[in-house]
Amino acid sequence: MNLERRLRWARHGSAYFARKLNELPDAEFDAPTGLAGWSRRHLVAHVGYNAGAIARLVDWAATGVENPMYSSPAARAEEIEEGATLSVSALRALAEHAAVHLDVSWRDLPEGRWAAEVRTAQGRLVPAAETPWMRAREVWIHAVDLGNGGSFADFPPDFLDALLADITGLWQRKAQGPALLLRPDDREAEYRVDIDGEAPHVVRGSTVDLARWLSGRGCRDLKADGGELPEIGRWL
Fold this sequence. Notes:
Blueprint: H1 3-22, H2 40-63, H3 73-83, H4 88-108, E1 117-119, E2 125-127, H5 131-145, H6 157-174, E3 180-184, E4 191-193, E5 201-205, H7 207-214, E6 223-224
């Protein structure tokens, strides 16, 4: 994935999330989402604070001074819980302003600093050039999690391809089963998770439906050779 493409995905995804958020009536912010324990308030707070957290990584890359996404997992969770108590207008402003701040941080990052390494909340060292991909995943998928009409079918086709590669690649690195062989019926491609000693579960369907299932957002119109779909673990 080149940097220009990642930035495009992140910016278009931010615009898509903003559009779905603008379509959400104030009175519906208290409704639950499909994410355990989170209302729409929690989700919007998370997306706003995530932009700030990624901007800290961009600052780290720019200055060389360590600036982690969060001081701890507990601090991250506490921030989201507190954010969920904000007024609806404050939550809308948080999501909007944090996204703008992050975009400015990317714009101002010197070209030579995109290769600087920063550490994700999961502890991985990655180049700053990965931060737009980190953000793109958040905004596109959480736009669906808002539950007011967002759809994987709206995602850019090349982003869906990258998402399938990202999830299966993560599970492969972690040797996290089950073994899978995914065959989109609308692409000349396949995605694998190879686990020693396991015959892969072959799963077929559209790229949209495979991405929805792998990211834990439900199953539609998928077929598994030999019967039922396997149980898959959590992605992020």
